[in-house]
C-alpha cells in the first residue's frame, strides 16, 4: 500500500515557481490581458487603437482574444473556415466581404420628439469610434468605406414619450456601407427603432452609447425585401447604472447577419437582449451576440427565439458571454429556442459562456431546438380548437414572448401581423 | 339526454419493450345527469381510459368502441370530440407559453359553439366563473397555465368545464395534489356544472376523499385494465375502509367474482 503524502498529491509546479504560460495552479487558463488590469478594447484611452487579439497567452478560442481593428487590411480575406464565418454562405454575401463598398447607402430618415438631435456627419466626427470597433472583415469593410454617418442624440435627462423612428430604406443592390451612431446622454430615456426595409446589399455599423444612468431601448427590425443582403454590427457601450434593452427582429432578406454586442464600462449596468427570427425556405438568418462583462456588478439577460420553415431555411445563433476576472457580482443568463415547423430547415445554436471569476451572482445558458410539442397541440385541440388554428396559436405564443418585450403597441401589432403572414405561408 | 357508451375497449401503447396492453376490455355507459366514479390503484388504467376518450395520440385502440349518442367517437379527431361535447379535465395540464388565458378561452369557446361568444356577456361569464372558483382576475392576462401552481391549474380546468358546458366531463384525478380548501372549491365547480342537468360526469380518482364533496351514482373499481367490481356509492365507503388490497390478492378476478355489466 502506497502512502500518499501531501507532497506527492500535489500536481504541478510549486507556487514559488512560475507556472506554465497560460496556466495557474488550478490548471485554469486565465487570460493575462485581464490579469494585467486592462479591460475591453473600448474601455478608456484605447478607443482609437486597434488590437490583434488579446495578446500573448489568450487562447484563440476565448472571445477576449478576438481581433478588433478599424482597418480592413488587418483582417485576412475570408475563406469560410473562420470560427465566426463557418455557418455563413460567403457567396451569398454578394461582395460585402470582398468588394469596395461604394454603392449608394440606404436612405436614413429619422422622426421623433423634437428634443432629439439628428445630425449627418463626416467620418472625422469625434463620436465615431466611441462605442464600436470592427470585429470582423465585413464590419471593417464598412468602416473603411462609409461616406458619412447619422448621429441621433437623446439629450441628457430627456425622457422621450414617443419612439424615435430611424427608417433605413434600401434602393440599390450595389454593395454599400452604412454608419449610425445613437447616443443616449446621461439619465435620458428613449426607444429608438431601426426600420430596415427595401432592397439593399449593405454592411452596417451601429454604435450605441448609453451614458451613465440612461435607459435606452434599441429595436432593430429587418423587414427587407427577398433580395436584400445585410450585415449589421451593433455595438453598445453601457455606462454606470445605465440600461440597454436591445430587441432584434429578422423576418425579411436573403441573408441577414446581425452581430449585437453589449460592453459594460462601469458597474451597475444592465443589458437585456432579445431576438426573434422567422426563416423561410432558402433564407439565411444569422445572429451572433456578445456580452462583455468587463466590470463588476452588471446584469445581462439574453433570449432569442426563432421559427423555421421550408427547405434550406437556415438560422444561426451564437451567444458569447464573457465574464472577465474583474467582473465580480455578475448576473447573466442567455438562452436560445428554435421551433422547426417543417422538414428541411436547419438551426445552429451555440451558447458560449466564459467565466474567469467564481465571485458572481449567477451565470447560465440554455439552448433548445425542436419540433412543436405534441402535448401543447393536444391540450388546445382537446378544447375544440382545430389543428391548424392550434398550431398557429402555439407558434404565435412562442414568438409572442419576444414581441411582448417591445412595448410599442404599433410595432407589436405590425410584427404580430408579420408573424401571421409567415404562418399563412406554412399552411400553403 | 345523451349517452356515452364504451364497449369492450382494448387499448395499448408502444413502449421501448414493445406493445403493452393497458385496457383489457372495458365497458361503461354514462348518461346525462349521472356521475360515475372510477377508482383504482396506480397503474390500473384509469387515466388511460380518460386520455383514450379524449383521443390522445399515444393510445391505440385495438378493439372495442366508444360512441356518443350513436356517433363513433373513435373516428373523430381530438378537436372534433371536444366539439361533440367531450371535455377532459387533465391530470397534468400543460403550459402553453405566449398564449393568454383570455385569448385561449375565447378561441376555444368559439370553436366549440361554432360562433364567437357575445363579447359583453362572455367577459361577464368568465369573470363570474373565475370569482366562484377563487381565481385571481389577473390570471386572464397570464399565459395558459404558465407559472400556475398545481392547484391553480386544476381550478382553471374546472373553469373551462363551467364555461364550455360539455355533454360529458371526464375528470382525470382532478383531486390529486389539492389541499382541502382547493378540493372544496373545485368540487363546488363540478357540482354547479352538474346541477344544470345537462352533463354526465366521469370522475377518475385514486382517493375516496373527493367523493365526500361530489356524490357518485355509480362506482367502478379498476384493476389491471379491467372493471373488477361495480356498485353504488356504498362501494366507495367500503374502499375507504379496506383500500385496494383485497383486489390485489388473488390477482383481482378471484377476489371479485361477480363483475356486473353496466
3D structure, described in words:
The longest helix of chain A has 19 residues, at 409-427. Chain A has 2 domains: 32-371, no CATH class; 372-428, no CATH class. Mean pLDDT of chain A is 88; it is low at 1-20, 22-41 and 43-49. Chain A has helices at residues 6-9, 32-35, 137-145, 374-381, 387-403, 409-427, and strands spanning 107-111, 117-121, 149-154, 164-184, 189-210, 215-222, 229-238, 243-250, 255-264, 270-279, 284-293, 299-308, 314-323, 331-340, 346-355, 362-370. Chain A is 14% helix and 38% strand. In chain A, helix 5 packs antiparallel against helix 6. Chain A has 428 residues and is mainly beta. Chain A is built from 6 helices and 16 strands. Chain A has a 16-stranded mixed sheet that branches. Chain B is of the alpha/beta class and 262 residues long. Chain B has one domain: Rossmann fold, CATH 3.40.50. Chain B has helices spanning 46-54, 78-84, 101-113, 119-132, 150-164, 180-195, 233-242, 245-248; strands spanning 3-15, 18-31, 35-39, 60-68, 71-72, 86-89, 96-100, 143-144, 168-172, 200-205, 218-223, 226-231. A 6-stranded mixed sheet of chain B has the order 6-9-10-3-11-12, sandwiched between helices. In chain B, strand 1 (3-15) and strand 2 (18-31) form a beta hairpin. In chain B, helix 4 (119-132) crosses helix 5. Chain B is globular. Chain B starts with a strand and ends in a 14-residue tail after the last helix. The model of chain B is unreliable at 250-262 (pLDDT under 50). At the A-B interface, helix 4 and helix 5 of A face helix 2, strand 7, helix 3 and strand 8 of B. Chain A: It comes from Pseudarthrobacter oxydans. Chain A: Residues 1-10 have a biased composition (Basic and acidic residues). Chain A: Residues 1-36 are annotated as: Disordered. Chain A: One of its GO terms (biological process) is iron-sulfur cluster assembly. Chain A: InterPro entries: Fe-S_cluster_assembly_SufBD, SUF_FeS_clus_asmbl_SufBD_core, SUF_FeS_clus_asmbl_SufBD_sf, SUF_FeS_clus_asmbl_SufD.
Amino acid at each position: 500500500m502506497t502512502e500518499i503524502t501531501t507532497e506527492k498529491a500535489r500536481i504541478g509546479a510549486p507556487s514559488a515557481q512560475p507556472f506554465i504560460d497560460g496556466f495557474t495552479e488550478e490548471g485554469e487558463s486565465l487570460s493575462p490581458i485581464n490579469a494585467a488590469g486592462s479591460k475591453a478594447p473600448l474601455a478608456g484611452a484605447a478607443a482609437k487603437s486597434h488590437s490583434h487579439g488579446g495578446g500573448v497567452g489568450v487562447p484563440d478560442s476565448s472571445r477576449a482574444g478576438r481581433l478588433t481593428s478599424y482597418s480592413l487590411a488587418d483582417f485576412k480575406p475570408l475563406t469560410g473556415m473562420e470560427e465566426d464565418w463557418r455557418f455563413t454562405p460567403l457567396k451569398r454575401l454578394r461582395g460585402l466581404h470582398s468588394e469596395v463598398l461604394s454603392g449608394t447607402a440606404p436612405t436614413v430618415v429619422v422622426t421623433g420628439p423634437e428634443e432629439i438631435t439628428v445630425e449627418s456627419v463626416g467620418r472625422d466626427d469625434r463620436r465615431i469610434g466611441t462605442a464600436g470597433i470592427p470585429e470582423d472583415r465585413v464590419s471593417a469593410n464598412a468602416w473603411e468605406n462609409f461616406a458619412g454617418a447619422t448621429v441621433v442624440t437623446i439629450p441628457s435627462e430627456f425622457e422621450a414619450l414617443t419612439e424615435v423612428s430611424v427608417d433605413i430604406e434600401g434602393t440599390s443592390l450595389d454593395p454599400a456601407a452604412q454608419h449610425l451612431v445613437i447616443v443616449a446622454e446621461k439619465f435620458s430615456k428613449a426607444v429608438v427603432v431601426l426600420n430596415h426595409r427595401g432592397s439593399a446589399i449593405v454592411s452596417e455599423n451601429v454604435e450605441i452609447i448609453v451614458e451613465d444612468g440612461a435607459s435606452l431601448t434599441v429595436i432593430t427590425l429587418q423587414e427587407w425585401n427577398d433580395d436584400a443582403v445585410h450585415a449589421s454590427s451593433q455595438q453598445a457601450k453601457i455606462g454606470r447604472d445605465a440600461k440597454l434593452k436591445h430587441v432584434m427582429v429578422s423576418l425579411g432578406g436573403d441573408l441577414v447577419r446581425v452581430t449585437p454586442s453589449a460592453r459594460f464600462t462601469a458597474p451597475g449596468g444592465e443589458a437585456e437582449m432579445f431576438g426573434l427570427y422567422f426563416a423561410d425556405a432558402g433564407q439565411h438568418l444569422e445572429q451572433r451576440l456578445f456580452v462583455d462583462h468587463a466590470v463588476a456588478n452588471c446584469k445581462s439577460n439574453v433570449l432569442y427565439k426563432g421559427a423555421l420553415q421550408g427547405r434550406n431555411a437556415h438560422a444561426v445563433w451564437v451567444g458569447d458571454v464573457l465574464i472577465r476576472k474583474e467582473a465580480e457580482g455578475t448576473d447573466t443568463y442567455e438562452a436560445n429556442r428554435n421551433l422547426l415547423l417543417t422538414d428541411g430547415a436547419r438551426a445552429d445554436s451555440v451558447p458560449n459562456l466564459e467565466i474567469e471569476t467564481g465571485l458572481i451572482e449567477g451565470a447560465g445558458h440554455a439552448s433548445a431546438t425542436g419540433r412543436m410539442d405534441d402535448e401543447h397541440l393536444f391540450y388546445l385541440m382537446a378544447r375544440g380548437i382545430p389543428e391548424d388554428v392550434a398550431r398557429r396559436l402555439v407558434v404565435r405564443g412562442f414568438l409572442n414572448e419576444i414581441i411582448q418585450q417591445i412595448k410599442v403597441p404599433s410595432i407589436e401589432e405590425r410584427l404580430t401581423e408579420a408573424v401571421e403572414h409567415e404562418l399563412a405561408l406554412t399552411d400553403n | 339526454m345523451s349517452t356515452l357508451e364504451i364497449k369492450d375497449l382494448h387499448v395499448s401503447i408502444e413502449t421501448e419493450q414493445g406493445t403493452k396492453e393497458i385496457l383489457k376490455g372495458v365497458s361503461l355507459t354514462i348518461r346525462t345527469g349521472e356521475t360515475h366514479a372510477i377508482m383504482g390503484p396506480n397503474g390500473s388504467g384509469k387515466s388511460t381510459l380518460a386520455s383514450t376518450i379524449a383521443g390522445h395520440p399515444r393510445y391505440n385502440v385495438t378493439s372495442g368502441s366508444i360512441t356518443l349518442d350513436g356517433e363513433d367517437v373513435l373516428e373523430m379527431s381530438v378537436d372534433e370530440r371536444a366539439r361533440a361535447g367531450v371535455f377532459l379535465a387533465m391530470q397534468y395540464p400543460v403550459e402553453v407559453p405566449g398564449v393568454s388565458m383570455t385569448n385561449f378561452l375565447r378561441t376555444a369557446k368559439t370553436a366549440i359553439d361554432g360562433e364567437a361568444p357575445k363579447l359583453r356577456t362572455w367577459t361577464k361569464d368568465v369573470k363570474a366563473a373565475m370569482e366562484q372558483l377563487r381565481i385571481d382576475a389577473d390570471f386572464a392576462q397570464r399565459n395558459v397555465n404558465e407559472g400556475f401552481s398545481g392547484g391553480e391549474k386544476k381550478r382553471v380546468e374546472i373553469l373551462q368545464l363551467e364555461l364550455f358546458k360539455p355533454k360529458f366531463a371526464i375528470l382525470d384525478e382532478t383531486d390529486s395534489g389539492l389541499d382541502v380548501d382547493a378540493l372544496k372549491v373545485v368540487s363546488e365547480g363540478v357540482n354547479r356544472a352538474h346541477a344544470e342537468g345537462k352533463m354526465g360526469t366521469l370522475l377518475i380518482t385514486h382517493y375516496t376523499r373527493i367523493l365526500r364533496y361530489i356524490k357518485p351514482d355509480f362506482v367502478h373499481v379498476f384493476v389491471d385494465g379491467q372493471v373488477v367490481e361495480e356498485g353504488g356509492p356504498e362501494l366507495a365507503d367500503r374502499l375507504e375502509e379496506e383500500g385496494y388490497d383485497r383486489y390485489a390478492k388473488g390477482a383481482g378476478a378471484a377476489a371479485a367474482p361477480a363483475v356486473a355489466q353496466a
